Model the fold of this input.
Amino acid sequence: MKYFQEELSNLSGSIFKTGDKDEDRKRQKNAKKGAVSLGEFMQALLKAISRRNLETDARHLLTSDMMKEKIPACPAEIYRYNKNRRRGDAQWDLAPEDIFRRLCIPREQKAPNGIVTIDGRKYTSAELQLYARTFKSMHNETTCKIKTYEIPNAPFVLLWELTGQGLGLLEATASTKKIFEDGYGFLIKYQNCYRNHLFAEAKFIARKHVNAAISAERAASAALVSKVTQAKIDNVERNAAMAAPVLDTDGTPKEQARRHLERQKVKSIISEFNQAPLQESDFVKPIGRDNDLVWIDDEQDLFIDG
Done:
């Protein structure tokens, strides 16, 4: 990899370090301004690959037979020598279609109406549309499924397997070429990601005022109560006692409970008569003492025959 970096370091926009700090700083500063097109970069890369295959010293790969035949010690000549030694079917060159089948990206996918879609790109051809219509009419309106081969560096061309007829060619639709005009696969993936991001951002902005209205409505409703709850509150307030009840703290809790139960029974009995409601003060009577006699002022006169 370092070999190719050095070979491409003379390209405008390269940031490969030369060892000179001033020169490296200058390269880093002008990298974006001097960037070359992808076509120029690929041309320079292929040139570097060719030079490496033709000029690299590969004497350590030479065999005794190669030395006898005076084969040049470079990767390209060693490859040709080994290729010429093949026998039988191995010496045959692969057909172009077999090369595409081995090196391209295979996929099996449906082609509704004769259109294949890969990462948002659409491909079609007259042959595929005819095949899709024929297949649909003969298989109860079922969509056909085909095998395709994607060429990594040719995003606007797609190959597909024609049964018994080799490979067919599919071309990108006009809308696909317009949207993905830059063409290369990594750029298409970046465009798809960026397009999805913009869509999500626009959707969020569009719902921003809707979410604000929903939040305001929830905040307003949280400060209010329903009509049923308000009616219960009003009923409790109407029937609530005007004064706090007197707490009985004498005796054990069991005795306090018994006295409370007795008072409740008395209240329930008296409530059957038409008289003023019984007050808590009716249960508390003044107690007096006189010469070891205990009397209660209950405002009642007792008549005893002597």
Summary: The chain has a mean pLDDT of 78. The first strand starts at residue 105 and ends at 110.
